[in-house]
Amino acid sequence: MANALPLILTVFVACAVEAIEALTIVLAAGLTRQWRSTFQGMAAALVVLAAVLGVLGPTITLLPLGTLRLVVGALLAIFGLQWLRKAILRASGHKALHDEASAYLREVAAAKAAPEVPKGRVSDWYAFTLAFKGVLLEGLEVVFIVITFGDNQRNLGAAVIGAAAAVVVVTVTGIAVRAPLAKVPENAMKFAVGIMLTSFGSFWGAEGAGVTWPGGDGALLVIVPVVAVVSLAYVAWIRRYRPAASLGQQARAPEGVTG
Amino acid sequence: MLRALKSFGAFWHDFVIGDDWHVAAIVVVALGLTALLVHAAHVSAWWLVPLAAFAALAWSLFRATSSSS
Q1: Within 13 Å, how many C-alpha atoms sit on residue A3's CB side?
Q2: pLDDT tens by residue, A57-79
Q3: CB within 8 Å of chain B, chain A residues 48-77
Q4: How far apart are alpha carbons B19 and B17 in whole angstroms?
Q5: Chain B residues with CB inside 8 Å of A94's CB?
Q6: Using an 8 Å Cβ cutoff, are A22 and A34 in contact?
Q7: Which of A9, A36, A64, A165 has the fewest Cβ atoms nearer than 10 Å?
């Protein structure tokens, strides 16, 4: 269990960020439209996610470990560098900081404007689809992180525990405050997640390509801080030599799927 | 059907590759070179992937900040 702690913590933080974003959408749908259709949408998305995890998780472990690490490490490194890129651009002022409060207000405005249309057993199709898409899209990132980290460490159970704990903590907190979790340092968490995904991805990818790391798994204790220091140096470099004129068109552009 | 396939592909492209495909390409090339160095030249090239990741990130950030600074 002690060996699994870094895995659980990494998955916990990564999944908490996704759960916070999903919570914002669910709250917007539930509080402005109606809870019944929102819960139906959430439940449908969770069933799809459980099926994806249940099928892909054990299937991927059938691959030889070297192949698994090469493929998953590459995906994780690419995915992590994307997160890191966005986090660095945010930290250096070239991209607007992610703000759950304003994201919530945007969702609420859209939800209030949409008409209430029943479909089958769903009395409010808009609330259903909003909750379904929100939970499914953010949940797919959770599933991706759980499968890549869990299968690579041959400990899918520990990764599931980390993800489930994150979802439970965020959900319980969200129910308690009945508002988006705007006070959570989400941008700093995203920066940290980008560092972890990039570090683990580079480590596993290189191992899959045949590399033997000096110090074995202990190399991660060097890789993670080095990635963090280099990323912070990039932030300082951009702030000093390439400062943002203003938060222009790019900064206001809608977010992609990740980060 | 074709539209569904296209949007499925677009989703996964956005999900994994994201805003700058150059980063993904550099990582893939670096892993290929690493495998080549390890298996063909017997060089323990553990340093190549992290260096390529830092270079890819710097290149991508340089391009992104060129258009907005």
Answers
A1: 7
A2: 888 878 888 888 899 899 999 99
A3: 70, 73-75, 77
A4: 7
A5: 64-65, 68-69
A6: no
A7: A64
